[in-house]
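Let's do one together. I've listed all components of the complex below, 646 residues spread over two lines.
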Amino acid sequence: MITMVELKNGKCGIIRQIDGGHGLKKRLEVMNIREGKKVIKKCSAPLRGPVVIEIDGCKMAIGRGMAQKVWVEEI
Amino acid sequence: MGNPNVGKSVVFSRLTGVNVIQSNYPGTTVGYTKGHLLLDNTEMELVDVPGTYSLSPSCKAEEVARDMFFEENPELIINVLDATNLERNLYLTLQILEKGIPTVLVLNMWDSAKRKGVHVNLEKLQKIMGINVVTAVAVTGEGIKELVNVMAEMTKNPDRDISKIPKMDDDDKWACIGQILSKVQKIEHRHPSLLEKLEDASVRPISGIIIAIIVLFVTMQVVIGFGELLIEHILDPIYYQYYGPFITDTVGNYINSGFIHDILIGSGYEYETSFGLLTTGIYVIFAVVLPYILIFYFVLGLIEDFGYLPRLAVLLDSVMHKMGLHGYATIPIVLGFGCNVPAMLSTRILEGEREKFIAATLIAISVPCIAQTAVIIGLIGKHGIQYIIMIYGTLFILFVLLGSILNLLLKGESPEIFFEIPPYRLPHIGTLIKKTGMRVKGFLLEAVPFVFLGILIVNILYVVGIMSAISNLVAPIMSNMLGLPNQAIDALIMGFLRKDLATAMLAPLNLSPNQLVVACTVLATSFPCIATLIILIKEIGIKNMVKTGILMLVIALTTGTLLNLILSNFS
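Okay, and this is what the predicted structure of the assembly comes out as:
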């Protein structure tokens, strides 16, 4: 497993594990970022900015720190 | 109710005829708007609430939504969903349905769903949910009639529209949604369109920055170019050839001299500095500021509706973090270049109090509104573009410095960015024109009374002699620190009321370009206009407002003095 930050741009993965407290998990979950979902990493913004991901055709920007807590299995 | 950026405000406008600002980014609506509609001759009150992903809020705007839901006891809920992303949208729906209030689901953006290859079996969905489901393309009005019919039916026998889906914990909710969708939804794979390719290009580091620079450059060129064109070829001729002589003669026929005449006409229409209500007052509002407002808001609307702003937010995120903000603060800041009032309101989309304070302070101090920009262009533009660059360059440096300092001084960290990026959509021209119209109307409603009031006060203060007393009092500050004549204080005082008028008051003083740069910068950074002040107090509280106020005075004076020193020594 690798984190979403490590996942290469343009690659797909399945979310396997989300670290962090209940609050963070809930915030991600209501945006449909949860275990078992297929995710595409679109790109990372410059200067260690957020990463852009896509789930079910919906794009989201997510801070690098948060993205580091999301573990995916590359497919 | 519904997730952010699903088109709730559009549906609301269509149902009630009440216009609300609609854009293509999450967080357009940050407060609630009430409107009315007639259903079978009974008047119903409808409330447009900010979007939220769940009933446990993560920012102020989402709190508004939750509070409306739990405290207002609605009789009927219109739950608007993005048909292209049902899975995520249905989570909130299940939460809403738990409360047992009659609900109708509106699957909005039905056209994009079809284009994206999303097929939904409506009958099955209605059956499973146990409530009515309507499809709509709200921007064109498609499906609204059906929604009204359904709502009328619902008010007759409300109990029928309460869903029988039982309460569940969160994991079960997602499982339930998964099951529902596997029965009712089919998604075909389509190839990405040109717009989608552009979407990706605008957040990728290199192409993104190039696109951002192009957008900024084109916006500036269009706003300044068209503004000047309108003024030079349409508004100035109208004012000087028709309106001016007409109004001077008309008033002159009734009152030919004295105090009242001076207040109405001033020293004559020929001088833009005459300070009459019907001459300078009208001229500043309609021939100096209005053209820029019109074009700025049209271009801003275009950028908003296209969906560009959230992408700019992604690009600027890491830079903004250095100033204690995160990327999404880009949106209130961009709005601030139009008018600081909606910008202050839109700081509600930021999560923390600390961020709100930093964003509000930075906007109040270093983001000049379009009304002020218009007058600055009018005043200094003729001396050369370099002076305008000096003013905006100074403001930009201030923005970065102040942000970095606040970031260091205030405890806490800016939360990480986390938001949905809407797809690019081709703007709907009708909505765009309506939105521009609303904002222009908002400007006029606010500007006309305040500019008139300001001119009235200036005239009275002169007659009574208070102005000269104040001028003498602050003379040392003005001349020694800022290098400005005493009379410039009039303009600075007027800055409390309205920045555009205040800046226009610098015109009769015959300042050198350098002095104008100092005066305009001080005006821009010192106190916000009265409308912004009121909103600012509401949004960040009186205590924080006092802090911001002191900061402004100190910064305005320091910046002015430094600029004066630099400019007088180097030229």
